[in-house]
Queue: 2 jobs
Job 1
Amino acid sequence: MTSHEHTRATIAERPELMAAVQGLVSDTWPDYFQSARSDPDDGRIDWMGLYHRWPHLQLALLDGDRVIASAHTAPLAWADEPSELPEEGWDWAMRRSRDDLDAGSTPETLCGLAVTIASDRQGEGLSRVMLRWMHAVARQHGMPRLIVPVRPSQKFRHPHTPMTEYASWVREDGLPQDPWIRTHIRIGGRIISACDQAMRMVGTAAEWSQWLHIPLPDNGEQVHPDLLSPLILSDGIGRYVEPNLWMLHG
Ligand SMILES: CC(C)(COP(=O)(O)OP(=O)(O)OC[C@H]1O[C@@H](n2cnc3c(N)ncnc32)[C@H](O)[C@@H]1OP(=O)(O)O)[C@@H](O)C(=O)NCCC(=O)NCCS
């Protein structure tokens, strides 16, 4: 499928794009998204599991031969009230989607896990293209709702502010101050609730130091542009709990 000069493909249609999509993710997301262990499960984020279980739900946008944007999603047999969405976000959706698949349950809701735009292509409005495409894919596969644990792009500037408060900040025109929350609202999304424990990640102080590219003490609190809330270091172990915001489309 082609739109403007861009080509769209799912990993099911073009499995050979998997490495390029994962390369885009590695280049664009903070290092700890590849390397930190989840706390307490001890596993790393199972990006590969997404490609293998649901290749038709992993999306790649190409400019010529180059993957310039991607979207990762997972289906959930979840049809509860949006207000029932848990405090967990990513971690819950990853676990639940895998369990639902193993149980053979019918998908009811698509969960948008990640939208990634190549660094040199950010600011061109491509994220809107990817969000609309995710929504279309959800409907195409019989899932009327798209839920997203949104990672607000400017939250790192306010690491001590609770997500509920941060998400309530609006500009004079009434739209959210955060550009990524605003983008979701502009295309019809609505805020449901904070998921204050979207991801729990753990590593040694030495590992975090490598992932964040700064020296770190064994004890104390660290803020950093890659982190939406402070990293807490205790006896050489760093724990990070990432707050996200549940938003609903459809
Ligand atoms: C967050 C991300 C998806 C946004 O994608 P994008 O294609 O660059 O965003 P767009 O061009 O569609 O712009 C969206 C809004 O953000 C604003 N924006 C874009 N870059 C910005 C920047 N560096 N600083 C502040 N605002 C910015 C735009 O002005 C626009 O807001 P407006 O239309 O209300 O003015 C992209 O930056 C990204 O891939 N980041 C790394 C991975 C990530 O954090 N993904 C999101 C979590 S799933």
Job 2
Amino acid sequence: MYLSRLELKNFRNYKKLKLKLSSGINIFIGDNAQGKTNVLESIYVLALTKSSRFGAENNLIQQGCDEGSISGVLCDSSKRKELKVCLSKNSKKVFLNDKNVSRISDYIFHMKVILFGPDDLDVIKGNPQNRRDFMNIQISQLYEPYVHYVNEYNKILKNRNEYLKLLNLNQYSDPRYLEILDEKLIDRAVKIYQYRKMYFDFISSKIGDLFEKISGNHRLTVQLENNLDIVEYREEEIRDKFSKKLKDGRKKEILQGTSLYGPHRDDFRFFLDDDPMKIFSSQGQQRMAVICFKLTEIQLFYETVHTNPILLLDDIFSELDVKRRNQLIRYLPKDVQIIITTTDLKNIKKSIIEKSKIFVVENGTIEEKVE
Ligand SMILES: Nc1ncnc2c1ncn2[C@@H]1O[C@H](COP(=O)(O)OP(=O)(O)OP(=O)(O)O)[C@@H](O)[C@H]1O
Ligand SMILES: [Mg+2]
């Protein structure tokens, strides 16, 4: 799939912007603080309705404005879809072919994106919540029901936490209500665990070989971790272990007034030759590991949803040495739309520049560069 048009109104430092993109490689070049990342971010928001920058939701609309919007035309095999995200101070509305889509979860399955950016290292170095957010976003784009299960799980979790707090204060003491919530929670958890397992099984089966080709003889593995001692992720196993944990841990949960076990506490870790990368690896190794993770994901997208996602590469070339830069390019699929930002065309191979559409970004305006 590819985005053929992008239109912004009052988004970050763009008052008004209209662009026609190439279905191949697009390069946005400009000095610092001119609006390169903002363009990539707008495409990310158009796809997923969320900012790619952590905690940045409130700054998407241009300062001094009450509303902003991002719209685009997505070409997906023979289909053409018009997507739009309208942002206002207190709400967000999404449209598909001019029709309002009331549930965001029904919207985000249309446009697939994978972002390679400066914050990628958070996937290894950040906190578990960063990783869970990342994993949820990625899996939501792959398996349509996933996000619904996560939303339902989170609602039940919220009720359960409120009830645990009441039990903690001794205000109610009907344990049957907790049991009903537990059952509902476990039903959704089974699904969430199984989708996560599917996702990590695919990544694990491919990432080692890819990393070895790119980085020599090191063995990279990625492991999904849960706090229920689940090993095989069969439905029966998940149900048994989750309910046992809830029974055994009931007193502790009431004492702390919060739910301590389940997929909302999952994490995943990268290991290089069996050592946890977060502690042992160099920054360059960590970056390559996340890049390999995302390259593996491109294959997973292709096999699962039968399309290549749109790749957003935010200034990552400048940080890689020439050898790794070329390796990365070699492993990108050929028939994929890529949107790259850079401060200097010198960071990009000549043969790539020659086949790319180039845009010059300057203080919230963009001009197509014609030779
Ligand atoms: N809501 C907003 N309203 C107006 N301007 C904004 C808003 N949010 C961010 N900006 C401005 O957008 C400018 C460009 O940001 P952006 O991150 O896209 O730059 P960049 O070209 O990627 O720079 P770099 O090369 O340093 O990464 C910043 O100077 C910032 O002040
Ligand atoms: Mg930037």
